[in-house]
Amino acid sequence: MPASGLNLIAADAYTTADITAAWNVNRHFTLRFGVLNVADETVERDTTLEFNVDGRRYFVSLTGRFF
Question: Does residue 23 carry a pLDDT above 60?
Answer without folding.
Answer: yes
